[in-house]
Every structure is written in C-alpha cells, then in structure tokens.
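Help wanted!
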Amino acid sequence: MQVVLFHLMPYADLDLEAGREHGTVWVNLPNSNFDPVKGHRLYNRYLDELEHGEELGFDAIAVNEHHQTAYGLMPSPIVTASALARRTKRAKIAILGSALPLREHPLMVAEEHAMIDVISGGRLISGFVRGIGAEYHTFGVNPTFSHDRFHEAHDLIVRAWTEPGPFAFQGRHYNVQYVNLWPRPYQKPHPPIWIPSQGSKETIDWAAHPDRRYTYLQTFSPANVVQRYLKMYRDTCTGFGYEAEDRQLGWAVPVYVAATDEAARAEAKPHFEAFRNVFLRMPVEMLLPPGYTSRESLKNVMKAKAAIFGDITLEKSIELGLIVCGSPATARKAFEAYWKDMRFGNLLVLCQFGTLPADLTRRNMELFAREVMPAVKKLASNAVPA
Amino acid sequence: MAFGQRFIDVDGCKLNLRRGGSGEPLLYLHEAGGAPAVLPFMEKLAERFDVLVPEHPGFGASDEPGWLENMHDLAYFYLDVLESLELRGVHLVGSSLGGWLALEMAVRDASRLKSLVLVGPAGISVPGVSPGDVFLWSPEELARNLFFDPALAEKMLAQPVTPELLDVSLKNRHTVARLGWEPRMHDPFLHKWLHRVNVPVKIIWGEADKILPVAYAREFKRLMPGAEIDIIPRCGHLPQAERPEEFCDIVMRFAGKG
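Answered by r_m:
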C-alpha cells in the first residue's frame, strides 16, 4: 500500500460567514475576501506541512488544481509541485491533477510535468482531470467540449512524452506542426498517470482500458460510493480480460486522529464542517454546467440534490465514511475494514481540511504517521490469508 | 388558425416542424427556451402569413446531429431548409438566440429572404455591457429575469416539471451551451459582415430586458443604421410572449406591407 499526503491548500483564514452568506466560495466570491499577507503565511505553512510529510514517511505528497476559489489556493499545481521537487529528496510528488481542458495548450502541460519529472529525478506522478464544473464558468471553456478536449489533450501529452520528435499532431481542438518535447520525461515510458474522479462510468471505462491501466482515485465520497466505483473499475478490467492490480485503485479521504475518539471528534468538528458545508458548497448550476456530465448523471444528481447540497455534520460524515476520525486504534480498524471491502492500493489522506489550524494539522499528521500509517502500509492483497 | 406538425429530413437531421396559416412564408426561429408549443403570437401571425416554426436541431423533438458544433453550422443548415422547402420571399423572425441565427443566415445568403425581424437578438457583444448569465442562474432566477411582469414568471414557475419536460429542457440547455457558452452568445466576427444583410430589418427590444439589456439595441442600430427599431416599454426579453398583440402589430405593419 502506498500512502499519500494530499493537500488542498484552502484559504483557511476565510471569513466563514461571508462564504456562507454568499452561498459559495467558488467563481464569484469577491476576491477582496483574500488577504495576500495571510495568503503568504498559508502557502508557506502548507508547503512546510507537505515537506514534513516526507520526513514522516509518506510515500508521496500530493497537490491539485483549482481556480478562483477559497476551497484551494493552487490554480497552478505546477508551482507547488516545483517548489516541493527541490525541497524533498525521496517522496514522490503527485499532481492530482492538471485540468487539461482548461489549459490553452496541452503541450505546456506535457513540458511542465516533464520538467518536474526530470528535476526530481523521476519522482513525479502525473494526474489528469477535467476541472470541476465551476471552473468552466470561471474560464469560459465550453463544457460541452470538455470530454473531447480532455481526451485529445491526453493523447497529445502521452504521445509527446513517448514518441520521438519532431512529429505533427492533428486534432479537432489542438494542431501542432512540431511536437518535439525538451525535456523528455525522466521516467520510462512516462510518469505514472492517475485519474482522480468523483465517480463516473465513462471515466472508469477509459482509465481501465488495457492500453492505459491508469490508477483511478475516488475522491471525497461516502465509503459505499467509493466501494461501488472501485468495484466497477475492477469489473471493467475483468470485462477487458485482465485483473486489476491494487495499485490501479485509490481512495482520497480526510483523516483526523487524536488521543481519543472524543478528542478527535471535538477537535475536527468545526473545521471539517467548514470544509463540507462552506468550502465545498455550490449551487447545482455551478457544479454541473451543461455537457460537463451526461444528462443521465445530471438527472441523478438533481434527484439527490437535498443529500448532496444540504449541510452535513461530522458525526454523520464519520458514519458515511466521508472522513476517518478517531483514536489511532479506531482509525486503524476503520482503514482495515474499508480496505477489506475496497482493496485500494493507494490511500490518499487529507490531514488538513477547511479551517484546521497549523498545530492541529501537524499533530494529526504526526499521530497518523506514527500510529496508523504502519498498519495501513501492510495492507496488501498478497498478505490476505487465502 | 390550426397548425400542423410533421418531421422533415434535412442534412440527415430529423427536424420537428409546425406550420400553420397562409400568405407569404414567415419562418420563426426560436430562442434558447425552444418552441415546444404553438403560442398565441404564432396563431395571430398565421392569420396573415404561412408560419413555419421548427424546433432547431438539438432542441425539443428534433435530432441532435453530430455535426452541430456552432452557430455557423446551424445557419448553413437553415439555408438548406429554405432550399429544401423551396421557400422564397421569406420573412425571417428570430428571437434572442434565434435572432443571432437569423443574422448568421442573412450575412451568408439573403437571396430567399424578404425581410428580417430580430427580437432581442444575441450575436454581438457590446463593450462594457454584460449579458445575464443564463447558465449560472437557477431556474427561478431565470424565470424572474425573463419577464417584466412578475405574474408571467410565477406562471412559468408554477408549471409542473414532468420527466419529459425535464429531458427536453436539459437537451435544449446542452445545445444552447454548445452554441453560445463561449464567446458568450455571440460571434466575434459577425459584426464585420452585418452590412451584407440587404433586406429590410426591424429590431424589437423589451426595454426591461435583463438577459440582453437594451444597450444592445443601440449597438445594433449603430452597426445596422438602416434598421428600424421599436423599444417596447414595460417588457422583458420575450416581447412575443409578454406583449403578443403589440409584437404582432409591429411584425404585421413591417412585414405585411407587401
């Protein structure tokens, strides 16, 4: 099992009342709510936390991309991953991921990822996403071409990484006369590709294809939903005529551990509820612009609207598996139980969420690394008694 | 005036076409909301014209052809429709997105057209003026911003959303996004060629339009100095629905001269 320390770098100093009153912290919450001096402190604190992750023995540290939102201050994960590449020596660095359709030119993504891979001596894990629906409002990129652009950008990037240049690329959205990447990536044939998703059959069909076998990460979903999609991925591989390896499956989940269950719940509660009920909140029109998902998926979301868009408590979230929270023993037991049902080969833990302050974040990371991670790392399919 | 309904096949696309009345042909190009039913203004116009009301490709009961990627595709398609139905001397009436479509057709080939009536048309951008964000608004906000008269919004919101209506509205919305998400509801090159519209043009605008503010009408007047403009007070984005009698009067006085 590979354990990854994942960070969203939220604007933890957000005036929560302002965020609540506005209805969302995405797209159009006025940026007068952002204070660059506080931002300076947060960026450096968060980068320190990720660097500390390497010292604590995490296999990888991970960043991601979100735009014009207090939810995450990483419009460019390239910037944070680059900073980490020079300050770490052993841990892998995962970009989860670059939002391909939002970028003007996929070759820039290919180049930037290749640079980080070469600078870090082959420690990059590349992730590709489409960006969330809100970001199509932000950038003006047409969401009805989102899937097309994603697939075409992906094809161009992987060909640029692997085929000798120069060669010409002809597509519907991108046309390049000379694809000739300098630098080529350090890893052969190219950095591993991970696909974070909120759960989509189309994404699974594509990622699981024998030509790709990309690692599929289910993010921030109730445990039964994670289980359903990871099983769908395995079944899809079976349908393609091969058996999925555990390394092809991952689960990203917030974690909070403290000395006792009671302490963990009390400490995590306000910060996790801010994460779920303020930072993640947005209206359905913002989350799912036309064409971003199939119309069938859109209807399913609209049907479940109350469940998805209503407030949720920490206690209910623990019950649903939206967070693992408790004493180290409770957390170990929870992960062992979840793993039996899901058999993911990658666990991505979010040790900072919402407004969780520096001292609690650090204690959480350290306690998790010392008391929970060793047991989690031992979970592997070949260790299961027959 | 009774309207008939049938499907016609043009460019491999099944098009739902309603047609009623007699007289010179009048092709009505609907706005983003579609044309799911025969409305009172259509009935009224059918007393004087042979009124054709298609549902655009990608809307309502019409097909969603793979080739439909932008407004230019739709303009060429409708020029093929005019040819296929052997229509000549057509009064082309387009509302909002349909007005933009009418302009894209007319700059390409106005030879089968007799006049153009544009009702709060999209298609251009106006420096410093932002159109309403129809994609970010909730259904409630959209309804309230469509009309000047709040009673009309209430009536619209009171309609039960059946599964069939929901399917159609999601389909329509998808096509509107495909055609007009970015650049938002306009073609940045269209304004350069508006002088090619060589038939009489009438522009009708609701003074209280919250989707495309009335400043658009002034910009159209600047770009098309020969166009006649009627601004309807106490009226929102859809004069044909909000003020049908006044709207029909204007159309008949303008297009019914001959």
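OP: Thanks! One thing I noticed: Residues 28 and 56 of chain A are 38 Å apart (CA to CA).
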